[in-house]
Amino acid sequence: MTVNIGVHKANPSLYHLSRLGLLEEALRPSGETVAWHRIGGLDTAAALADGTIDFGGTGSTPPLSAQAAGHDLVYAAVSAPRPGHGALLVRADGDIASLADLKGRTVHLAIGSWQTHFVAKSLAQHGLSYGADITAQRSGADSHARLLDGGIDAWVGQGAELSAARRDGRVRTLAEAGDLIADRSVFFTRRELADSRPDLVGLIVRALQAADTWAAGHLDEAAEIAAADQGGSAADWREALAGLPWQLEPVSAGFVAEQQEAADILAAAGFLPRPITVADARHPGLDAVAARSLTPAPSETAPSAAVTAAAAETREAPEK
Description:
CATH topology of the largest domain: D-Maltodextrin-Binding Protein, domain 2
Helix content: 40-55%
Mean pLDDT: 92
Distance between the termini: 16 Å
């Protein structure tokens, strides 16, 4: 069997796993192989549904949209919260003093990502609606520049772009994502695979944690890889990567409650076409497998020198 894994470049665990050879090594005894597919976060659930991939990971919002669209996915594992991962920025010399001042304004964000939940919850806490009170536009490489020249009023920055914008010094933080949402990475698969091969899903989760362990111990190398592939400076990437938890967790009741709150906010704002029950995407058997997979064995060690060398040699993005 070839295991097909979707790699969303903004998901750091999958991004590094695709370069380290850890999953390939784990699959070798069974004679199975892995194929990596670069897939955008908003396309991950559809790729699962049509069989293009068997496993993927995104931020917290895409699986909610997938459930609302009728896709039968189940959660496999989640990252620990990422408190410093993103922020809503405005111009330092502008006239926006609070979130309430965003009414009637234009906000750039990665629509459909965790950023949608973040902005929607920020507005809801001030009596505003994501769907009715702002103009949400998709962010791009020029969002920081457009914020500074007055073309837009606010922008959600994350990762290396956020580090660069703050270093530039002409922006002010209106809201920190970590103050409002857990902002986790989430990993999911098809229910059919969770039912038939929970061992395989557990093996993937274990390999993801090993990739996280490698990245946490090799931040300079990880930053250089990301900068070479995705742009930006290695210094900004290192700052962004250093703020990530690099720790996975099994799906819990607390996580399900977080996702349900997000789903309710997004449905009320009209972003989701219908209300959903997040618990329907929980798979108790898979939760137990993930918990075992994330418990280190007494003899387990950090990734080998060979893995580190492989990462250092690999600079190109994975393609199918």
